[in-house]
Write a structure and sequence with these properties.
about 300 residues, alpha+beta, 60s Ribosomal Protein L30, Chain: A, 8 helices, about 65% helix
Length: about 300
């Protein structure tokens, strides 16, 4: 037991030499309480052993005959008392050291109290801000879902393989297969192109605050023909063709639109089969996040 107490006291002394913090203060208080408890327990045991020794001595004086067993017991008890006295002295010394260290800690943590209080206030205000921001994001997600439902309603009679509408990480994507919009290997539009784009334009016109980007995507088969240098060229020209139709035919404000070509470098699947390559050949309309409105959410509330 004594060796365990030594190890405990050594651990306390080592811990007290580290950087001061509220957490370490609590730990040192707990260790001090544990040492004090051990000290009280040893004092009680010391008193019990003294009482037992006194009883043995009285028995010896009274009977004037001491058995070998009583003599052995007396010797053992005296040795235990001597050992306990040493342990008690050791605990007293270390308890005083720990107490002095706790006093030093109390001075340091007292000077930090105002800083801790302000930190807790900041945590509370940030928690409120996060809840407000989460509410704003939830409202934005609701608006995105309403937009998706409107688009699906407008394009409801089209095959899902030809038109795919989804929300990913808060952004709405509309993927339209190239066979609905363009002739093979060309940026000339099909007869159905204006029908499809007209339905999309109707929804976008109803949301004048929305900005969007039209992206052209190709498969990995190299492309070169009259007027087309490569897949980069084809993807860009398909994107600008769609933008012009939305502007000239359906009156969308050109300030709301961006045209971009992604060539073959952003596929949605591998280009290892004809069906997969057909899926990768698409025009994507990306509903752009309204960053100016989002940044307003980050402004400090008055």
């Amino acid at each position: 037991m004594r060796s365990r107490i030594y190890l405990l006291v050594a651990a306390v002394s080592l811990a007290m030499s580290s950087c001061v913090s509220v957490k370490k203060l609590d730990a040192e208080k707990a260790k001090y309480a544990e040492l004090s408890g051990n000290y009280l327990a040893l004092q009680q045991k010391y008193r019990d052993i003294q009482d037992e020794l006194k009883r043995c001595n009285n028995q010896v004086d009274k009977d004037n005959t001491v058995t070998a067993g009583l003599n052995n017991q007396k010797t053992t008890l005296e040795a235990q008392i001597a050992d306990l006295n040493k342990t008690i002295d050791f605990l007293k010394s270390n308890n005083n050291t720990v107490l002095n260290q706790l006093k030093d800690l109390s001075v340091v943590t007292g000077s930090q109290a105002e800083s801790i209080r302000k930190s807790l206030e900041n945590i509370g205000s940030k928690d409120l801000y996060i809840r407000d921001l989460q509410g704003s994001i939830a409202r934005k997600d609701s608006l995105n879902m309403a937009l998706v439902m409107n688009l699906k309603g407008a394009l409801g009679n089209l095959d899902d393989k030809d038109v795919n509408i989804k929300v990913d990480k808060g952004v709405v994507y509309v993927d339209i297969s190239d066979k609905l919009l363009f002739k093979s290997g060309s940026y000339d539009v099909t007869e159905r192109a204006k029908e499809v784009l007209g339905k999309v334009a109707k929804v976008l016109n109803a949301q004048p605050e929305i900005e969007f980007m039209v992206e052209g995507h190709t498969d990995s088969i190299p492309m070169k023909s009259a007027g087309i240098q490569d897949n980069w060229d084809l993807s860009v020209k398909r994107a600008t063709t769609v933008v012009r139709i939305l502007q000239d035919t359906y009156g969308l404000d050109p300030k709301r639109m961006t045209a971009a070509g992604r060539s073959q470098y952003l596929p949605i699947t591998d280009n290892n089969t004809a069906d997969n390559r057909a899926a990768n050949r698409r025009t994507r309309i990306v509903i752009l996040p309204q960053l100016d409105q989002f940044f307003k959410l980050l402004e400090t509330k008055k």
